[in-house]
Amino acid sequence: MAKEENIETPKENTPGAKAPKKAARKDGKEAELKKKVDELNDKLSREHDDYVRLMAEFETFRRRSAEDRLNLIASASADTIKGLLPVLDDCERAMAMLASSSDEAAREGTALIYNKLMEYLKTRGLAVIEAKGTKFDTDFHEAVTQFPAPAPEQKGMVIDVVQTGYTLNGKVIRFAKVVVGA
């Protein structure tokens, strides 16, 4: 029986008994750390997405602000040019009146003023709508009256221009008021 007592079963404090508990704790810590790393990666990914979206929103805001400024400047210049159109009309009427006058200096002076003003406005994008002798187009012309066409080929054509029309950078700012052949 003495021999039987010498045979010991492994106890908890022997190295073989502790190994499974350490491995289980190590696996638990690794899983916990892996979970934390995944959570941090997810959080970092969300923060990165938020940052990218914020930058895109800012870029859109910056672009819209720049467009708004350009539109404001264009609108202000269009209003100024629209205000000058009656002056152009007066110059045209004065030149028409002076065409039959014998006062050469007045005719040349008025033509000079009109040409300088018109050249400046052309550099800003103003263009005259050529109407007389063209086909009536509602995109550019406003019919003030119809007149019997003197010839069949003038039917639907602009016979006379009552008020000159203008475009500014391709957009109509004042329709040409015309007489249309019926």
Task: Give your account of this protein's structure.
This protein is an alpha+beta fold. The chain has a domain at 125-182: Nucleotide Exchange Factor Grpe, Chain A, domain 2 (Roll), CATH 2.30.22.10. Helix content is 60%, strand content 17%. It has three helices and six strands. The strands form two sheets. It has a three-stranded antiparallel β-sheet with strand order 1-4-5. Strands 2-6-3 form a three-stranded mixed β-sheet, with no helix packed on it. A hairpin with a 2-residue loop joins strand 4 (165-168) and strand 5 (171-174). Helix 2 (15-98) runs antiparallel to helix 3 (104-123). The longest helix has 84 residues, at 15-98. The chain starts with a helix and ends with a strand. The relative contact order is 0.08. The model has no long low-confidence stretch (mean pLDDT 85).
Tags for this model:
182 residues, alpha+beta, Nucleotide Exchange Factor Grpe, Chain A, domain 2, three-stranded antiparallel sheet, three-stranded mixed sheet, 6 strands, 60% helix, 17% strand
Largest sheet: 3 strands, antiparallel
What's the name of the CATH homologous superfamily of the domain at 125-182? Head domain of nucleotide exchange factor GrpE
Average residue-wise pLDDT: 85
Spans of at least 5 consecutive residues whose pLDDT stays below 50 are none
Rg is: 44 Å
- How are helices and strands ordered from N to C? HHHEEEEEE
The CATH topology of the domain at 125-182: Nucleotide Exchange Factor Grpe, Chain A, domain 2
What is the tally of helical segments?
A: 3
Distance between the termini: 138 Å
Q: What's the helical proportion of residues?
A: 55-70%
Hey, roughly how much beta strand do the residues contain? 15-25%
| Beta-strand segment tally | 6
Q: In which order are the strands of the major sheet placed?
A: 1-4-5
| CATH architecture assignment name of the domain at 125-182 | Roll
